[in-house]
Amino acid sequence: MKRALISVSDKTGIVEFAKKLVELGVEIISTGGTAKKLIEEGVDVIGISEVTGFPECLDGRVKTLHPNIHAGLLAMRSNDEHMKQLEQLNVTPIDLVVVNLYPFKQTILKENVSREDAIENIDIGGPTMLRSAAKNYQDVAVVVDPEDYNKVLEEVKENGQVSYETKFYLCSKVFEHTSHYDTLIANYMREQRGATDLPDTISMTFEKVQDMRYGENPHQKAAFYKEVGNTKGCLTNAVQLHGKALSFNNINDTNGALELLKEFEEPTIVACKHANPCGVGSASNIYEAYIKAYKADPVSIFGGIVVANREIDEKTAEEINKIFVEIVVAPSYTKEALGVLTKKKNIRVLTLENILTKQPDTAYDLKKVSGGLLVQTIDNKLLPEEELKVVTDRKPSEKEMEDLLFAWKVVKYAKSNGIAIGKDKMSLGVGPGQVNRIWACKQAIEHGVEHLGENSLQGASLASDAFFPFADCVEEAAKAGITCIIQPGGSIRDDESIEACNKHNIAMVFTGMRHFRH
């Protein structure tokens, strides 16, 4: 290895790396700020203009875009004609390229960044050099990650060059790096023009947060990745205060609980198991909310996840600690509450700022299927903008309507087919993920009676995530003492359900909007 080109935005470790290359007899070419930094630190550097014979210009927009650079990168050493042409053109081959790109991501994440600033931080020469060097990987080593500096130095020191295997590894990292970079730019431009359509082609990029011990099952590999951009209120921004690392299932289940929590503005606790709500309670304070959520299903909450939209105080923490829960997430904890919760070794305690912040309307919901990807806009509406439609003889009272809306929020986040029963800002029974709606209905009723007593559902409200295909759910609700039902409507047998409600003096409201969740 004789000649290296270094031009980096992230200068982590670059001075030490360059000095060691010089010690190994490698000549350094550099540009702009990188050259200035290296020279200040006593590294011998050849300026890029000395190689190109052309000054850096246009405020640094043009520096390395020159045949003297790219011929030196792209010439195949095994091709005699290539090497002959280099000699005729007086071009020296470049054996190592060390480049990382203008900080586009860091720029667009700044508050109130202008489009002009963002565009000025789109690197042109850097990706071009990276792609040239990576295309010719058999002859040129190309480094984008400071973590690889030591590996390169060790091989050059030992063998005088970088091995073929390492060069191919570095080449693959280049295309991952530039793909990520270009996707950030493309998505930023799409946001800037306010695009809301689903594009003909779609590219997304995520950054690894952590490796996981395994996936849903121990034989599956897994990792947790985060989106780049505004992720306020998302689990990727949570800070873990106590406990072992989150598992794949922990993250998936907690995310489901957080999505439901965001529907409530008053103090609320959501208890979740396998991404389904098992207990939800709202009250004037977080302690009373927890008591409601616990009483709703004291069996399923065991080993589950508890999320809160208010600070956890000592009294609430003591109640939580009476059972085993996997995870607690809240915007904050009092010092005393944190002391109580951290007494248990196996609980994970997380804090999440902006816990009620919802995803923007432009966000996508993704589902991987074999050989493809299902993409849809997020389900960011609770009810249609127009008024709800009362379809029965009896209208719900103000109190009943409050219960209906509470139950509707809960059922929106239960797996389909889903039924949720609520009363007094407390879930009384949830029947999620059944293959037919009557099973979900019976399950929700049975759970309510089992945990809260024989007459617990008297005067309660029932919500269904999709329409009733038959009147059987109404009949079951009537037997349990339920007095109000909310559902989308739209079945060819709606009249049968309406007639059954009228017969049992049940008020029923149609939303005209369903909430399937698969």
Short description:
It is built from 18 helices and 21 strands.
Instruction: Give the second-level CATH assignment, the architecture of the largest domain.
Output: 3-Layer(aba) Sandwich
Helix content: 25-40%
- Sheet with the most strands? 6 strands, mixed
| Average pLDDT reading | 92
Strand % is 15-25%
Q: Name the poorly predicted regions.
A: none
What top-tier CATH class of the largest domain fits best? Answer: Alpha Beta
Question: Structural class, from helix and strand content?
Answer: alpha/beta
The number of distinct β-strands equals 21
CATH superfamily descriptor of the largest domain: Methylglyoxal synthase-like domain
Question: What number of structural domains do the residues give?
Answer: 3
Give the termini separation: 56 Å
Shape: elongated
